[in-house]
Amino acid sequence: MSELSWENDLALGDAGESAIYKLIGDAEAIVTTGFFKDYDIILNDGRTIEVKTDAKMHKTGNHIVEYGCNGELSGIAATKAEFWVVLDGELAYFCHSKDIKDKARDGVRKEWVSHEGKKMRGSLLDKNTFLPLCRKIYQCKVDISGR
Which of 27, 55, 64, 78 is the most buried (most CB within 10 A)? Predict the structure, then answer.
């Protein structure tokens, strides 16, 4: 397992975005690079996607939905993306962001400090809550061993 850092998190996120980009097809989408708060991928028809790589989901069955960082809105609370796509290393779960946002309000609230000392807030959705929100699930292998 590699060292936890912002750079490794960014590389893991970029790997997830690239995997979804390949899954969709390069003729259909444009990927944003680096830190862009509104969305990660824009489709040619204007629809947008936020990609989250959740390394623990495959093992725990839970998805943590971030909504705050250091007192600011982040994650699901900040995205303007129509779709919320979660990668667990094996599968890509495509959901409508609004559905995730609505369920996250009812999820188990969590607070933690990131490896960079940031105060994070989120909501834990178990797989029984999360899976019914998924519109499509695809095989999508991505190396998330760096986490």
Answer: 64
Q: Are 34 and 11 in contact (CB under 8 A)?
A: no
pTM of the model: 0.87
Q: State how many domains the chain has.
A: 1
Q: Is residue 105 part of a domain?
A: yes
Q: What backbone phi and psi angles, to 5 degrees, belong to 15?
A: -65, -40
pLDDT tens digits for 97-131?
999 999 999 889 999 998 889 999 999 999 899 99
Q: How far is CA 74 from the centre of its chain?
A: 12
The answer to whether the beta carbons of residues 16 and 84 sit under 8 Å apart is no
The residue among 36, 42, 2 whose CA lies nearest residue 24 is: 42
Range list of H helices, the chain: 6-24, 57-60, 97-104, 127-130
Cβ neighbours of residue 6 under 8 Å, at least 6 residues apart? 116
Alpha-carbon span 66 to 79, nearest angstrom = 11
